[in-house]
């Protein structure tokens, strides 16, 4: 028996099941040139691979149309020509030729504006893997061979892997790589599959069929559990499921406190999928749409049109408010296609609104996209990291400029669009009175506010025990902001993790917080707390 602790919970729940290993063989291509005499045999190897891959995909396509697209890619003239040219003219061996051709074609799709076309790059890479496996004479793992309920253990999973999974059999997922915002995490959350990511070395420790208990609530895993551990996890699972059922029954109830105050329960979302998942939980809107994920998951700064399509989709999904926070990059959030200068203190450095006010054309593209989406739902705009009235006013001037442009172009948007700001810096707390007169709403970002008020880095393990949003200084700041907002007649919400914390919620209700925005998984429980307080 072995106990493992994991820090990142991607999707919650408790599972006891055998392991299904999803091991990828080494598909690193051989490198090196081939002589003129070998050109014919390398060409033949490619033709054989193509025939076999296309035939396999044709069979798979009968069951799932994703593979019809893969079959087309595999038989595509451009791919074939590219590989054969590299073999014949550049004298590359077939594996290297294939690897380069696949990378080049995937890069073309990656660079496309249209998000549907962009996603085809993953399909091209997938087809490349099939070819390479054939050329190397190895077998690719296949979810089709999964015949019973199991916890899938993998190094990482890609979108095309997940469509092949038989959802009914996948009871849990453990991956070595992947962050809580990686594709596998997003997919797992939307399918409600308990998932832990970043479990270092797990593939080496398990084999197919090994019994595993995982608690993706507490972040614990037990390999080959003994009888006592099995019983412990079975009890946890039963209690968790019973609690969930009870909580789900409350979804139809309006969240009102015992004193009759209507509380707004909203979701935090990083993308449209999160919005979709949250809606089923009876939310009052999206209190924080973290637009930076759209930038982080991209290969270039998303264009106005790309952003507009995403925001519009989200706006149409949410019947109530959709609060889009403008780009909050910097600090610990980097972009793969933009190099940030190294900073001594990134969290005190060039981030969020500071970047946007300097990179105005990028900022304007985002604001125009948000404004255009506001014609399709109740969209609100929220500025992060504000520390002065000057900053807020400057951001609003840029926004007004975008509105004027759209009016001149005859593009419709919500003329009454609400503009709010995050309260996540000590300066914004102390100036809350003044800020409240110039915005339509506040949303308290306790994740940053706690680190800035207490001078405790939110990501530093060494000071983690000091990072406490229940510290009286943080609570006093929150009370001050709520009071200042209410005196000016604006709604005060919170979108930091504290809003979904069971210990904090009663305290925040008592202070008069109007809106609680949190990850979707916490909403049911917070509703219960609201009804009880
Ligand atoms: C916060 O700081 O509380 C917040 C919600 O923003 P983020 O966690 O994205 O910095
Ligand atoms: Mg923040």
Adjacency order of strands in the biggest sheet = 1-8-7-3-4-5-6-2
By DSSP (H or I, 4+ residues per run), the number of helices equals 21
Top-tier CATH class of the largest domain: Alpha Beta
Helix residue percentage: 40-55%
Tell the overall outline: globular
- For the termini, the CA-CA separation is 43 Å
Number of domains: 3
What is the C-alpha radius of gyration, as a whole number of Å? Answer: 26 Å
SSE arrangement:
Layout: E1 2-5, E2 9-11, E3 14-22, H1 39-61, H2 66-74, H3 77-88, H4 94-110, H5 115-136, E4 150-154, H6 159-164, E5 170-175, H7 183-191, E6 195-196, H8 202-205, E7 211-215, E8 220-223, H9 227-249, E9 264-269, H10 272-279, E10 285-290, H11 292-296, H12 304-317, E11 321-325, H13 353-358, H14 360-373, E12 378-383, H15 389-409, E13 418-423, H16 426-430, H17 432-436, E14 441-444, H18 446-454, H19 472-487, E15 491-494, H20 504-511, E16 515-519, H21 520-532
Parallel strand pairs: 3-4, 4-5, 5-6, 9-10, 9-16, 10-11, 11-12, 12-13, 13-14, 14-15, 15-16
Antiparallel strand pairs: 1-8, 2-6, 3-7, 7-8
Helix pairs in contact: 1-2, 1-3, 1-5, 2-5, 3-4, 4-5, 7-10, 10-12, 12-14, 14-15
């Amino acid at each position: 028996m072995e106990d493992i602790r994991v820090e990142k919970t991607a999707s919650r729940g408790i599972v006891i099941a055998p392991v299904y290993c999803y091991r990828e063989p080494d598909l690193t291509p051989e490198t090196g040139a081939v002589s003129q005499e070998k050109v014919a045999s390398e060409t033949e190897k490619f033709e054989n691979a193509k025939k076999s891959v296309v035939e396999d995909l044709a069979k798979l396509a009968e069951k799932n149309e994703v593979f019809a697209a893969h079959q087309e890619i595999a038989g595509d003239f451009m791919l074939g020509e590219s590989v054969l040219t590299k073999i014949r003219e550049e004298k590359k061996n077939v594996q290297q030729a294939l690897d380069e051709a696949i990378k080049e074609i995937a890069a073309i799709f990656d660079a496309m504006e249209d998000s549907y076309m962009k996603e085809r790059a993953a399909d091209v890479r997938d087809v490349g893997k099939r070819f390479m496996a054939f050329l190397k004479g190895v077998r690719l793992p296949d979810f089709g061979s999964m015949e019973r309920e199991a916890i899938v253990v993998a190094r990482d999973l890609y979108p095309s892997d997940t469509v092949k999974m038989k959802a009914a059999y996948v009871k849990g997922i453990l991956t070595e790589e992947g962050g809580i915002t990686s594709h596998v995490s997003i997919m797992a959350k939307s399918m409600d599959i308990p998932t832990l990511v970043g479990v270092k070395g797990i593939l080496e420790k398990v084999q197919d069929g090994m019994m595993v208990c995982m608690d993706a609530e507490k972040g614990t895993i037990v390999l080959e559990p003994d009888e006592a551990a099995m019983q412990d996890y079975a009890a946890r699972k039963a209690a968790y499921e019973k609690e969930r059922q009870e909580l789900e029954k409350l979804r139809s109830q309006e969240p009102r406190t015992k004193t009759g105050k209507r509380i707004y329960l909203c979701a935090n979302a990083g993308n449209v999928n999160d919005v979709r998942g949250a809606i089923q939980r009876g939310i009052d809107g999206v209190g924080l749409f973290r637009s930076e994920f759209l930038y982080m998951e991209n290969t270039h700064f998303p264009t106005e049109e790309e952003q507009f399509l995403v925001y519009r989709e989200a706006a149409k999904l949410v019947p109530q408010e959709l609060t889009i926070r403008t780009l909050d990059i910097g600090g610990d959030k980097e972009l793969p296609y933009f190099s940030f200068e190294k900073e001594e203190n990134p969290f005190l450095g060039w981030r969020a609104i500071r970047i946007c006010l300097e990179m105005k054309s990028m900022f304007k593209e985002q604001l125009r996209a948000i404004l255009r989406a506001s014609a399709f739902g109740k969209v609100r705009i929220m500025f992060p990291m504000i520390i002065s009235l000057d900053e807020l006013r400057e951001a609003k001037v840029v926004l007004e400029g975008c509105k004027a442009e759209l009016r001149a172009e005859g593009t419709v948007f919500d003329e009454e669009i609400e503009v709010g700001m995050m309260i996540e810096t000590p300066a914004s707390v102390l100036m809350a009175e003044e800020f409240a007169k110039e915005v339509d709403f506040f949303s308290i970002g306790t994740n940053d506010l706690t680190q800035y008020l207490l001078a405790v880095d939110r990501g530093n393990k060494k000071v983690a025990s000091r990072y406490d949003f229940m510290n009286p200084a943080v609570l006093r700041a929150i009370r001050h902001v709520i009071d200042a907002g209410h005196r000016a007649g604006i709604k005060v919400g919170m979108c930091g993790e504290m809003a979904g914390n069971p210990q904090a919620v009663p305290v925040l209700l008592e202070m008069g917080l109007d809106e609680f925005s949190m990850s979707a998984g916490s909403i049911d429980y917070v509703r219960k707390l609201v009804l009880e307080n």
